[in-house]
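User: I've been trying to design a sequence by hand for this structure and keep getting stuck. Would you show me what you'd pick, starting by listing the structure so we're on the same page?

Assistant: Good idea, let's start from the same input. This is the structure you sent:
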């Protein structure tokens, strides 16, 4: 499922919610292409450390772990930078996935 986030300046980002197949297959490259350098470096270091300690056999383990959590982390960081859901459907999807807290409406 994809949702749109809009910044205070009007920039729109279409982001995927849920499991990251691209992170599973391509490791740190999706984060690098999104401009998320912090997580790209963290993923690269984690893969390198696992590869060193397992003689290369465990380099894929961080990819599996990050594929479950990376999209959620990416969306949360965008929201910390000022992005908000573009519409009510995007807000509901983010609340359903536990990325955004439900705000009681009066």
């Amino acid at each position: 499922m994809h949702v749109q986030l809009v910044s205070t300046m009007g920039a729109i980002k279409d982001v995927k919610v849920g499991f990251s197949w691209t992170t599973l297959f391509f490791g740190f490259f999706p984060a690098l292409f999104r401009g998320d350098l912090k997580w790209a470096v963290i993923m690269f270091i984690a893969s390198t450390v696992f590869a060193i300690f397992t003689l290369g056999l465990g380099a894929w383990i961080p990819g599996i772990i990050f594929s479950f959590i990376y999209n959620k982390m990416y969306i949360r960081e965008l929201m910390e930078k000022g992005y908000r859901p573009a519409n009510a459907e995007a807000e509901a999807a983010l609340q359903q996935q536990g990325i955004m807290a439900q705000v009681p409406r009066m």
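That's my pick for every position. To get oriented when you compare it with your attempt: The chain has one domain: 2-96. Strands lie at 2-6, 12-16, 84-85.
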